[in-house]
Amino acid sequence: MVDFWGVPSFNVDISRVRRVLTKLARGHINYELSNVQASPPDFVTFTPVNHLNHEQLSAFMADPKPDIFPEIGSRQFLSLIWSGSSGFYSEGWSDWKIIQPGRYQYVVEQKSGDSVRILLSDYLCCEVIWD
What we know:
Layout: H1 14-33, E1 43-48, H2 54-61, H3 75-83, E2 97-100, E3 104-110, E4 114-120, E5 124-130
Antiparallel strand pairs: 1-5, 2-3, 3-4, 4-5
């Protein structure tokens, strides 16, 4: 659809996008943390990159700083061991996983709850949080 000024626009089925993001986040949490999130998330948000200011984008793209060690035997724990890092306030084990450059990347963070940030097509910033 094109608006009055000739700019392309489209309608977004927000509930459908939230369901898809929740499924992706559940999969990433299960894969990285060996943790099953069966309950609905407490927070799901998404916005285009060009709607964020520099500080917001920097905060979104920042590597997470964990408060607790991941579960022993989980993929994230093994990454911590392989990196030789303590994992706390250092880099190497919890940074963004780039699945396909320019198309899909994500990061999983575990603090008081679990959260997943996803960047789709270097365009859509998404975050799903369970407290």
